[in-house]
Structures
1.
Amino acid sequence: MTLKVSDIGEKELVKYIIANSNDIVPDDTAITKLNDSNLISTCDMLIQSRHFPENMSYFEMGFKSVTVNVSDLAAMGAEPLGFLLSIAIPKDLPLDAFKKIIEGVLDACNFYSIPLIGGDMNEASEIIISGTALGLCDDPLMKNTYSLDDLILITGDIGHAALGFNMDSPDNIYVNKALKPIARLNEGILIKKAGASSATDITDGLASELYEIKKDGFGFMIYEEMLGISDEYKNISDNLNLDYLDLILHVGEDFELLFTISEDNLENLDIDYKIIGKVTSSDKVEITFENGFSQEIKNKGYEHYVSE
Amino acid sequence: MTLKVSDIGEKELVKYIIANSNDIVPDDTAITKLNDSNLISTCDMLIQSRHFPENMSYFEMGFKSVTVNVSDLAAMGAEPLGFLLSIAIPKDLPLDAFKKIIEGVLDACNFYSIPLIGGDMNEASEIIISGTALGLCDDPLMKNTYSLDDLILITGDIGHAALGFNMDSPDNIYVNKALKPIARLNEGILIKKAGASSATDITDGLASELYEIKKDGFGFMIYEEMLGISDEYKNISDNLNLDYLDLILHVGEDFELLFTISEDNLENLDIDYKIIGKVTSSDKVEITFENGFSQEIKNKGYEHYVSE
């Protein structure tokens, strides 16, 4: 029998690449030492049939292609330097659709103050957008450099995009978050300045990111009551026959930052945030529910290629 | 009638992007000023059904995805800094095929001394590889900064890849050039050091590149006898019912450098090269054939999206 990539899954494939390269730092971005600073670089590819829901506009596709890349800069606390756009489109795409995609890209570049500096164009059977974000950072925020008893925090609300992907009605905070997420670029810079001990962005769901940043001997205790879940959120989830905690823990695309900071440095933090838990020595990723019971959180974040 | 992107063609689409952005330098790469140097960045996407001939191995696909990007660094005379690999593969791709692609990428990174520093993985219905090459350059070689009477030169042989794409027999210099082209990275650095006045890489055919670097008031005279076309090349083309000059002028993928240098600086040039012509004031791109007749060269380089 010939082994297929789906037999081993995306994470093992990435591990294979990292194991065979001597130069990859397994964090949110690449880091390259430059004289007195670090070049921060990251690339992310979005493919129409996999990443763009049917109700996403062309403008939003363009905007999101910048956001997903800038979000990785945010997770390092980097200052933006430039954006490269590699785009492939079908030859029968209406010209207006193309212009809307570019408008979305340029609007996002303007919003994040990251200039569009170059790119590449191709023809393909569907829309493919591969962005590269470049930044500078004197002392990048790594994802697993936290200490015991550090507080665990998030920016904004998580789970909103997950709910929005399941809603038909347009124009509410959930659908808006799903279709036009915003990267926390300024927050990332302020988090680093405040002396945070680690950071990553939430693309694959809170649970998956916690497992991503977990290191041996350390664990996390998350408190449901601190996640800021509204009654409205629970009600809408219920009506859609969705488990609200499942949405929040195991579905991503919020592009909020997940970060840690010592209690001492908390007072330096000049952004909106939620404290959601604490770094423990349990070696487990756990949650304490509103009813007081605690339980280990399973790692079932999205993975490409896994056989169904 | 709704206009489609194929109604206006790739070049106009690229012009649209550049016209709407204030930060794109229309050259082989982006250039970003950094303290005492320039960050050079470029991205190129390769799509299996469009860029990889059927007889190309998985290793060669990986290798080429690095070459096409490094070739743009070479055209600026830049020193390599890092490579980002954004790759999408079908879930039923054999694991061994995936490993061969990565082996090709890593072999190329090693060959060009450009470390693989990061990337992204995705699932798609075919293999898509979008690379980003980063480099540094104190004084980048632009593509149209030549002067009247500068000599026009190329590295290596052009047209070989074009012929190789049409040959069934494996393992000859033409097929090898088509399947595993090599970027002229070191030559680019040496060309810059020698005081070349401009450079670009030949991806779309000599004629197309000459039109790409042409500026108002300047022209080029190319001499067929200086192109180094062998009798073997002419014979194989003949046997395949192909016009050898058409292959050389209008089909690309050689990844050789096309550059200009003053006669005074020629003695500084410590690489293998061919002088193929001269910068003129004719405002035309012309060729003098071996029989002594001269003619304007048409611009019919490959363009995506153009309606057939």
2.
Amino acid sequence: MHSSGNPTAAVLVIGDEILSGRTQDVNINTIARFLGERGIDLKEARIVSDDMDAIVEALNALRIRHDHVFTTGGIGPTHDDITANAVAAAFGVPISHHPEAVRILRAYFREMGREETEARMRMARIPEGAELIPNPVSRAPGFRIGNVFVLPGVPRIMEAMLHELEKHLAKGTPVRSVTVEARLPEGDLGDPLRRLAAEHPDVSIGSYPFHEGGCLGARIVIRSRDAGALERAVQAVRSLVGRLMTGAGE
Amino acid sequence: MHSSGNPTAAVLVIGDEILSGRTQDVNINTIARFLGERGIDLKEARIVSDDMDAIVEALNALRIRHDHVFTTGGIGPTHDDITANAVAAAFGVPISHHPEAVRILRAYFREMGREETEARMRMARIPEGAELIPNPVSRAPGFRIGNVFVLPGVPRIMEAMLHELEKHLAKGTPVRSVTVEARLPEGDLGDPLRRLAAEHPDVSIGSYPFHEGGCLGARIVIRSRDAGALERAVQAVRSLVGRLMTGAGE
């Protein structure tokens, strides 16, 4: 499972509000599910603060390793939004007001009766060589430069913009997964499940304990891109759990 | 604000289930709030899969940079739990069954009427030189080695164990924060808020847009360790927002 040949991706979340604990990040989860459905392996996520050096360093580490990198946060109109500048610095390119972004924002502000402030027009500043990503919710665009997609932090807008990216993404074979619930403590499962996993190398098997209604159990998640291997492993896990729960041993 | 002299920390979340999108991480947020209250700056968080090389590399990168590193996940009894081995590899030390951990687990399994399986006893495997972290919920201990605290992924247990760490932590001056709500679009705030932020270098000012009940607005979060500087900046922000909302200009 670890070298599937599928495209790989990383997420870089930018924002003091996540690291201070003030805000619970939900964008990593949204992007993870979006990528999984398209057969792209999310290998890594990082959260850094609104700090130029931290953003540049993390972005440069991630973009050379992965086919796609998604950043969220820091592209609004206020002084703490420094992502566009940091991305330009990471790529070593200048940044300036992008004519098409200026046009989009001006039309939107006119329509909404909002004043065209310097702060608002900062949202049109785009690194040289980048291509705009449309924002179907509040117009201010994101952008793509190289293999990096720069998206806003507001979850509803981020998710809408993610769906604008289909054409840019190298896709793979989606992983399919089946969950088998075992009403047994994980410790009873560990040894036989280890042997079973060794016999099914083309699937990945994870075990996640739960405690519900006074009952200890584990959800066994079997994942694979190979439908046949998945089915064989699922049957083997079901049969193992059945034997263990009825005390029939292995 | 960026070099406060306070201790710094990083979080490393380990688990395929987070990167596949199956599970929403909540541990980063819990640890962030815990550290914030103790004046420890959470600088960075990373999420990696249950992969030996990925864990070792991320852990070694984080532990040399920060005063404290917290890992969550991958210390259960099943084959996909490889965190203890990866931590031993990162520190270049052997791993074996820790006598005190064996004693704790045996007593617990006896008490609960659970069989002592090889899988269960894997939870007693601890890198050489590490010290146990008590688990007040389900007994299986975490451990500290150097500046790294190894904790489980189950949020309720992770949080209980975090509170066992007080004595190990270098503490700083907690950041205090005040939020001022402005019922104004962020774009109207951007320019004057930038000037205000420049006049108050001892505080950090973040602006977080919201859209509630048809009303656009921004929460302006002012943060500082200096109570006087915080109070002065809060007054300045309140006064600015008041002027902008009543149309009195700047």
3.
Amino acid sequence: MPHQGGLSRRAGWAGGEPIANLLMAKTLAHPELVSLAAGFVDHRSLPVEPTRQALDAIWSNPEEARAGLQYGTTIGYPPLREAVLERMLQADGRSRRDLSVSVDQVVITAGSNQLLYLVSDVLLDPGDVVICGAPSYFVYLGTVGNLGVRAVGVETDQHGLIPEAIDGELARLEAAGELGRVKAIYVTTYYDNPTGVTLTADRRAALVEIAQRWSRQSKIYVIEDVAYRELRYYEDDTPSLRAFDPDGETVVQAGTFSKSFSPGIRVGWGILPPGLVEPVLAQKGNLDFGSPNLNQHLMAKVLQMGLFDPHVERLRAGYREKIDAILGAADELLSPIEGIQWVRPAGGLYVWLRLPEAIDSGLSGPLFDRAVAEGVLYVPGGYCYPKLGRSPRKNMIRLSFGIQSCQGIRRGIEALARAIRQVH
Amino acid sequence: MPHQGGLSRRAGWAGGEPIANLLMAKTLAHPELVSLAAGFVDHRSLPVEPTRQALDAIWSNPEEARAGLQYGTTIGYPPLREAVLERMLQADGRSRRDLSVSVDQVVITAGSNQLLYLVSDVLLDPGDVVICGAPSYFVYLGTVGNLGVRAVGVETDQHGLIPEAIDGELARLEAAGELGRVKAIYVTTYYDNPTGVTLTADRRAALVEIAQRWSRQSKIYVIEDVAYRELRYYEDDTPSLRAFDPDGETVVQAGTFSKSFSPGIRVGWGILPPGLVEPVLAQKGNLDFGSPNLNQHLMAKVLQMGLFDPHVERLRAGYREKIDAILGAADELLSPIEGIQWVRPAGGLYVWLRLPEAIDSGLSGPLFDRAVAEGVLYVPGGYCYPKLGRSPRKNMIRLSFGIQSCQGIRRGIEALARAIRQVH
């Protein structure tokens, strides 16, 4: 492959301008737009007061403040790693013994995204295959694309990834002599970005079983992204996919406090199979030798002082109003339009909308510019599809309700309904 | 290349256990050891009070606190990028126009190390060549090793990298048909890790000229690491290497507040040639889409409130005592031993000691275990040499004086002198 402009092959794989920049440019050009595009969290709900309390507590003991200002270790601050593991086990109703897990398998990263990057980097060579939903979280598709890895999408429905579709895809890859290149299955198990759906418990068990059953030529890991687990508004919690992997050799769990507390603090983590800990730490050592220690001390203090759960409760109350606003507006304004469908998410930040088949939602299609003219910005669904496997639907859009007020959400849906009627 | 244990080739390239872990294990096993190994900064000098003042100022305005707790942009917080650029220009005595530079070329990263990683990742393919000093900063050697890149070391002296040695190496590579694989020259321009030396002004100019003159088959960048620039105790500042590149197309400058303020806050930056900005941001977007926003707001506030420079002055006063302690102890206790030499650094955190030729300073040599038995830990110099090019000297050690008290430093040098006499 030729070098482009003196850059590395990986720089070339990183691809063109990300959708985020394109949408940012639109927003700057049309400041009056209601953005239902950005996946940012609600601005007014950010934890100003809990963070102040935790910082005050740290600074009340200069030695503790000093510890936070010094280097930490690459794997991360032990009390935070203990707290992360304990929360996961409590939520899953399992013990360390049940899940063959210890704090030595918990690594702190700059958001869950860095963990996804590190794990992908140590597992995947150019040309390797990751199985994921069609659609999937587009930032992760960018990450694997950047590694020269093939993301192969399989069918999903209102219960998430379809096990039979994965089995079918693996059989096809085996027949093509490619099974040995399959290294991972990636899935967001709670309130998926972009679909909003939660993988059902029986499918969680099936996914672990499938990964293990097909690990005949290469080990196939399941990378479980739990970024939205805490953002549930209308149902009980479900044990994580990791809880269905009692040996702990198959599932990588990636989590973050970015959505549930603060993206500006940017503390995430991974709970890793034992064999991946050293390789991930070696790469993280090259990259930044440990995430900012101050942020880790801060999150540990927030958890230890009991400031986290009350904040999440407030967050849920706020987002519950917003999800009611967007689903209410959709029921009223979109459902009368023939051919529009959506699954009602019970949590998260996204509604995944299916338009009439004939409508192309892409940047160069008729709807996008009409929507901007009417005053609303959305993410064209096409950005959320892997390049290979199940072909993209052109008539999907992702709506985010995190940052807008309820009034803003309603105005946005009104504008969207007008735009759709104009191109329908 | 075969896959090892189902991991990627890059995971294999990341190499064995890093020296940091080996030294950590020794420290844990012998808690009474005086460590002159760790490159940590002085613990008591960490900016507890300035950080508290800046946090209080941010929290005095809830909207400002909220902004810090929200996502930022991938490139980083504009006021911080402005401040970084302004400081560089003031220190260099140049204007934006003089150096063809704008704030659009300033990217905020998780320490300078992440910038070094990102730039290397977008420039270097497996098999490509980076020219660097023999010795060089060993974490960067790990980073390029992890990319499958060949680090080729050239001779250095008390004035830093020797331009004629670089010319000679480039001529050799050209004769071997490898000139097209050379993509960068890496250099720490102030108080180098491990040698402690500062590159002289005429060599800075020469380095830019060499990189440009040899950019015949591939563009050759100079990656300038200024991590220790502020830590000068006994001389005036020198314009950076970037100041010798008025077009701004050749030099990448990587800097950090980790050494000069706090590694726990971990804010670094890059000042990039225009053509590297987009590729670096695309990679950073995949990795973490922006360094923690809170830390960026905090450092911007520290600078804006005028808290940074007084802190650096205090830091210099403290380190000046320590460098006097280590050089004084070395004069007294080491110089009587025949065959020991060192360059007196005017700043930084390191003294690079040359032992008598016959003494192997490595982990498996006779000195290391004797030194541990006598009560001192050092970094064997062998870890600081690139794999290719000028062959490593086995009789070098790196001493760090950052974390020990003056008494600890003296005890450490006493122990080292005893150990050397025993194996000499």
4.
Amino acid sequence: MPLQKHHQIVSVDDHLVEHPRVWQDRVPARMKDAAPKILEVNGAHQWSYDGGIYPTIGLNAVAGKDPKEWGMDPIRYEDMIPGCYDPAARLKDMDLDGIEAALCFPSFPGFGGGMFHRANDKELALECVKAWNDFHIDEWCATDPARYIPMSILPTWDIDLCVAEAKRVAAKGSRTISFPDAPVPLGLPSFHSRHWDPLWQVCADAKMPISLHFGSGAYVPGFSFSAFKPVPGQMPEIEAPFAVAITLFSTNLMWSTVDLLFSGALQRFPDLQFSLAEGGIGWIPYILERSDFVWERHRWYQKIDFDAKPSDLFREHFWGCFIDDEHGVKNRHQIGIDRIMLESDFPHSDSNWPNSRKRAAEVLADVPDDEVAKIVELNARKMLRFPRLA
Amino acid sequence: MPLQKHHQIVSVDDHLVEHPRVWQDRVPARMKDAAPKILEVNGAHQWSYDGGIYPTIGLNAVAGKDPKEWGMDPIRYEDMIPGCYDPAARLKDMDLDGIEAALCFPSFPGFGGGMFHRANDKELALECVKAWNDFHIDEWCATDPARYIPMSILPTWDIDLCVAEAKRVAAKGSRTISFPDAPVPLGLPSFHSRHWDPLWQVCADAKMPISLHFGSGAYVPGFSFSAFKPVPGQMPEIEAPFAVAITLFSTNLMWSTVDLLFSGALQRFPDLQFSLAEGGIGWIPYILERSDFVWERHRWYQKIDFDAKPSDLFREHFWGCFIDDEHGVKNRHQIGIDRIMLESDFPHSDSNWPNSRKRAAEVLADVPDDEVAKIVELNARKMLRFPRLA
């Protein structure tokens, strides 16, 4: 009997929309004018930051709306249900959805902090990163420490600042770092570079897994999209419907995963862990089989580890999650039953809210009880060091 | 009892290396000097064409070599086994491998003719395209019309020339067109454009499927590679090992497939067919489930067909193939048993030569006889209108 009452669902991928005071309440006084603040422009709420105006306050915040009304992002806070930006209201939305605990990614900063990475004023950007982390840990998660899981972003443009901030948030109780799935398109060194080793060391020491959310590197997959530099909150004007990119976003994480599997970083940092957020899991058996096939043939002459089989590395260093992935669930043992988690993706369009639990029960209908427990709860609690309170 | 003696294997993805006279024997006399010809340069055979020198005569032609010696492309014809470039010798290599019939993609032109697409002299390029097609049909395939399947490339830079050449090769008996999997990175309109409709009309009328070979659009997947414009025959000097790109090449075909599924072209041309060459099949169930999931939610407001379910379109318009894909074979009914074919990829590094038949028997060990017949032979013969001779 799958998904019974005693199974708590821990979602490893949800999203919050920042309220207007997140940065204004936290950055030094002299920076407040340039720091993110909400303006009223022709009846719309817009973010003003670092000299730019960003019309989208709640990118893809569609929870509670009819799909016929999707496609227009909310232009005022009142266009969203309060659970998008109010952590107390969110708890009630989670109750409705049957979700016990949630890991909430940023909105305005980008899932991996790309907004601050691209900003001109780096002194301000660093304060903005810290402010988001403090907001998330001290305000959002403090609302209910048993149900909200602390996450942090980093000043990705400077490795020393990354290390310092990672240490700071680890000490504050952060359970995971949201890092760009695609560093190279952001102008950063690839996962093959030793550039990141000091950060990996901190995360490994602190047992803080790295969450790679698809799209967090501001890279949009698909031939029609990948060449464009997306402007946050704006869809590029191209012929392909954006449904193509939405469908393909998990190919970002295929790329990130294979990069890491062949990077050597996993061997240098045995405790380093990566969570593939919103990537689905149905592609994993194919990518692992293909990785092993290529490794078997090309390890003889290429600069890749001769001894470390990619699929073994995956099952020691990666965690996948899904919303609605029947093929993945059916093939869960080819992925690794200890490495699969659930997500609800509230308030985005992939979410089944308010039916996440109901849909999970359907997808997991043929899965034995002990495996269901791992998938919906135990694996996430283990990865995030977020035990159930007695 | 799978893969019995009466099952002939028809491989839908192999490669030939052009011999030195392919173009010199065919282009008009005044063009011969600029047309592809082989030069002796410091003991190496190199292609000279359109003002450039191309050191690789047999890109990735490793058949018969120890993997420890891979990584260096052959520098002289004598470095390859003759079956790479001699169609009579190839038949013996196919006999060794247990392959009855083969579809052979180009080497020097690129899998989809990208070399001629990028050339400066377009008048010459058109003659070079025609010369390759004539060589392939009149010389290579004529060696044994029961075992070689005619394929053609197109002058992709001009839709009217594409249409004219497609009509010409259809009349000459070509069974498929090799077309770039990634038109956009080549500077061409995407699959969402009506630009290609006249070509799709010719192919649909002639029942000529379009073969999309991964990499045929000169697009190399992976964050470290996708931003680079690859130079044919040269690996870009970047930190990531090329094993990453080799592993990920099928993501190109995921992108191509999803582009086409959401393009509307399949609905406009019910007889249009696409073959995904060297893409593997293990990813298809995931991508179809994900495509349906996105279509179900986003068809209400996006410019996509409200009524045509992507997975239905796939099973009416696409054919996949594999070399060694246990996950795909296990999940073959989620793909479509009438839509899966085999490939041997001779003489490239993915190939199991001379054990293609032996390995196929292992992978198909648990597959019923009638399904094996479809996968190794009947589906390919149907797609390519290439019946077994009595």
